[in-house]
């Protein structure tokens, strides 16, 4: 709302590049906005909604028609130009809202969970389309989402916000692979947290020493963060794990999920989730089977418990 100009900040400045737009009204900011609730004109056709931002910018009529057709193609609504808004499904209305925001090629595009009404397949297609649009037009896009995979797919940088506080900002890989605190590790991706002991500057779970590539500056009570897909399963409690961190346990539950299987392993330190791809060569495991869990030190994440 602050970036769009609908709310004035209590303090500080809003800069687009070197331009201070803090006091500039919304219609002078060259910002495209996609609202979560569509905000379309019900008295206009689909084409009329798309043409409106071009008309108020005095784009010539022939170019308006071309841009409307191109925008409809982009959101997979070719042939829908003459339809009324109330003839569209929720997902179709949201696609019209996206098309209307990008049709005049704004300098900055603001998107408030614009794909939440779409089905999974179309949402994933639109994620790539929006990213390609951003790359082609070179406009900064600020995109709000609660879908972690969507954030990782679409972003050059992710800002994770918790109750108004910026907890971490970085590339998708940095935020996922090196979360700054427990909140980020828990919010972005699947994670299991196990308490660590510190002895002589080293981390331990019971008698097993845990090596980590990085560690936060202020640890307090350290937690081991385990990503399900990073863990390897070695059948047998005495499996060889040379140069790997390891935990031993038994299989408690097995959940088949198509392309992968999720296993819950009971260890002395707590339950751990492990995800592995369903490949034909993988050894079969049964509930109650003893296993060794192994993870590379490079994939081992340690965060402070009080960062939650």
Can you put this structure into words, describing what you see?
The chain has 308 residues and is of the alpha+beta class. It folds into two domains: 142 residues, 3-Layer(aba) Sandwich (Rossmann fold), CATH 3.40.50; 118 residues, RNA polymerase II/Efflux pump adaptor protein, barrel-sandwich hybrid domain (OB fold (Dihydrolipoamide Acetyltransferase, E2P), Beta Barrel), CATH 2.40.50. Strands 13-17-14-15-16 form a five-stranded antiparallel β-sheet, with no helix packed on it.
Briefly, what is this?
The protein is an alpha+beta fold. The protein is 24% helix and 29% strand.
pLDDT below 50 for ≥5 consecutive residues: which ranges? none
Structural class: alpha+beta
The residue-averaged pLDDT reads: 87
Q: Architecture of the largest domain, CATH level 2?
A: 3-Layer(aba) Sandwich
Q: Note the beta-strand portion.
A: 25-35%
What is the assigned CATH homologous superfamily of the largest domain? P-loop containing nucleotide triphosphate hydrolases
Can you tell me the overall shape? elongated
The fold-level CATH name of the largest domain is: Rossmann fold
Domain module tally: 2
The percentage helix is 10-25%
Instruction: Report the biggest beta sheet as strand number plus sense, adding barrel if it closes.
Output: 5 strands, antiparallel
CATH class assignment of the largest domain:
Alpha Beta
- How do the helices and strands follow one another from N- to C-terminus? EEEHHHEHEHEEHHEEEEEEEEEEE
Which value, in Å, is the CA radius of gyration?
Answer: 25 Å
What spatial order of strands do you see in the largest sheet? 13-17-14-15-16
Distance between the termini: 27 Å
Report the count of strand segments: 18
Question: How many helical elements?
Answer: 7
